[in-house]
Design goal:
311 residues, alpha/beta, TIM Barrel, 7-stranded parallel sheet, 32% helix, globular, binds 3,4-dihydroxybenzoic acid
């Protein structure tokens, strides 16, 4: 396919995949992703033990995007790890992503030790940006803590690792996070997680229940922020750290823009539910391929990161 890509030593038949949290919590959903045109899949962010998450309603969407405060509902690391190890046996040349986090620093180390000791061969996305656990600060905004965590993790973790980052809004923050990430043998970063602490109101009442209606925003609302983060980090990170772009992708044009900003892979989140993996990945792949054909690009490497600045 025109849209094939690589991250580290891994090759993917298509640069499109789901975003963690979307259509990836159960074996049924993961199998639907696996059978679609997506080049890979990432599992729902797992914690050591399963969690039911926040009270419902905890997700809402409109034609421009979504708000969520799920609170990390997931079936626990063993469930997702076993699923992926099994898939790798059936599908030896398709690389998969496992998403993990911890509710404490110690839990992050414990869960990554488990992944390190398992037979999982794919890539691990360490989520440093879940905005919805009441009482827990967002790790990706605590630069010292990010540096401490990565220092500890790379003492024992020997598999390909990436981090999922929150959106940043200031040049000094792009500089600081890049300076930290560049010190480590990271294989990739995923940018951006939802824009935290938005508030939606229906008539006079909050749209979702947890945390008085505050939740992470995704979809078209966040595309400009996502593109800026992908490009700012592309410009600052060493070339070995590949970028997975996520935020506001519902068409081939959106994916094209993420790649132009520097993304080697592009995740689809908010626009996936409702349409489903089969139809969505076919649509976006066809649209992206058509744009590439029109512009005479035969691979994404021909335009990746080559955003032009107006004179
Ligand atoms: C949840 C939301 C996120 O944005 C994330 O990265 C992980 C978990 C959640 O609320 O479940």
């Amino acid at each position: 396919m025109y849209t094939k890509t690589t991250i580290g030593d891994y090759s993917f038949t298509n640069c499109l995949m789901n975003a963690s949290g979307i259509h990836c919590g159960t074996i049924k959903e993961l199998d639907e992703l696996d059978q679609s045109l997506a080049g890979s899949l990432v599992t729902k962010t797992a914690t050591l033990k399963s969690r039911v998450g926040n009270e419902e309603p905890r997700f809402d969407w409109d034609s421009f995007g979504s708000i969520n405060s799920m609170g990390l509902p997931n079936l626990g690391i063993d469930y997702y790890l076993e699923y992926l190890v099994e898939k790798e046996k059936q599908n030896t040349d398709k690389p998969y992503f496992l998403s993990v986090t911890g509710l404490s620093e110690t839990e992050i180390y414990e869960i990554l030790k488990k992944v390190n000791e398992s037979t999982f061969q794919g890539l691990t996305e360490l989520n440093l940006s879940c905005p919805n656990v009441p009482g827990k600060p967002l790790t990706g905004y605590d630069f010292e803590l990010v540096e401490t965590i990565l220092t500890e993790v790379f003492k024992f973790f020997k598999k390909p690792l990436g981090v999922k980052l929150p959106p940043y809004f200031d040049n000094s923050h792009f500089d600081q996070i890049a300076q930290i990430l560049n010190q480590f043998p990271l294989t990739f970063i995923t940018s951006i997680n939802s824009v935290g602490n938005g508030l939606w109101i229906n008539d006079e009442t909050t749209a979702i229940k947890p945390q008085n209606g505050f939740g992470g925003i995704g979809g078209k609302y966040v595309k400009a922020t996502a593109l800026a983060n992908v490009h700012a980090l592309y410009k600052r990170l060493k070339s070995e750290i590949k970028i997975i772009g996520v935020g506001g992708v519902s068409t081939g044009r959106d994916a094209f823009e993420h790649i132009l900003c520097g993304a080697s892979m592009v995740q689809i989140g908010t626009s996936l539910p409702g349409v489903g993996p089969d139809a969505k990945f076919t649509q976006v792949t066809e649209e992206l391929t058509a744009i590439m054909q029109e512009k005479n690009y035969r691979s994404i490497e021909e335009f990746r990161g080559k955003l032009k600045y107006i004179d």
